[in-house]
Amino acid sequence: MIRTFLIPLIAIVGILFAIIVVVRSSQPKPPSIPVVMPPTSPFASRVAGSGIIEANSENIAIGTPVAGTVEKIDVRVGDHVKAGDVLFVLDSRDQKSQLEVKTAELEAARQSLKRLEAMPRPEEIPPAVARVEAARATVEDLQNQVSIMERVQDPRARSEEEMSRRRFAVQVAKGRLAEAEGALALLKSGAWKPEIEVAKAQVSAAEAGVKQVQTEIERRIIRAPIAGRVLQVKVRPGEFASAGMLSTPLILLGAVEPLHVRVDVDENDAWRVRAGAKAEGYLRGNRDIKATLAFVRFEPYVVPKKSLTGDSSERVDTRVLQILFSFDPKDMPVFVGQQMDVYIESDSDGPKADSVKTGTPPAAMESKK
Description:
This protein has about 375 residues and is an alpha+beta fold.
């Protein structure tokens, strides 16, 4: 009974099930509805590319020329700053103490120069004049004594030894008079010019020392290089800020009016884009948010592709031509760093004949014009 009816029945059911499975699996699957409808190009002939929104000054990674501990942060994310505004300050207590020492040295050098330039002191002249007068009176007194002894006729009343002693005394007194007169003249002439020049050089050296320390203090005050908006702040008071190029910038700054879109165009389509081409940008995730883009410039160096869209079929070894477009941020509620789908109008008939003959890309010929 089992062999006669049951086994054939099971075989027939299995065959029918297999047929049903094969038929259902061979039917085409209906296309799935995307979560977000992709944008459509407004141009009949176009080149598509993915773009990233950036500041028109490019995103400036703010660092510090010297390493140190952050003392205070003067800005917050989203703040608008002007060129020269303070962003953050490093600890500079050591430099400020050195500045006090250098300032004291400068003041001492200036006072020394002032003293030399003010010479002679008025109080020093009368004593010097008095010494000259005293020396002159001594000379006259000794000369008078010699004259009196020379008028004595009797040789027994004077000795040659005494006469010689008095004549030598006159010469000594004259020397002292000359010395006193020279000291008076030197005093009245003031400080020696080379001494004043040395003092001036010492003042200049002290001023340079003060400026050097002031420069070191100023280097620890990090200021905005341009007017723009603070996009990121990745440093906090008390943290140690390293000098040099960092993988994560301490502060990210950029000019955001207008914004730029950096569009990556595959190198195989780069020849189809001309300078001044029209373009439309659609915000990734909402095709209804769009803006008309204005051509800015080509980046003349073709680079390896770095901005990935996430598509599984996307090639990562592609080289791209980067094109910059601009738009008013008031036209779109966007932020720096967001992605856009960009369509660029292109020539439908390919490169122009003269560019084919010369080997010059249409983009380069348009830029020359």
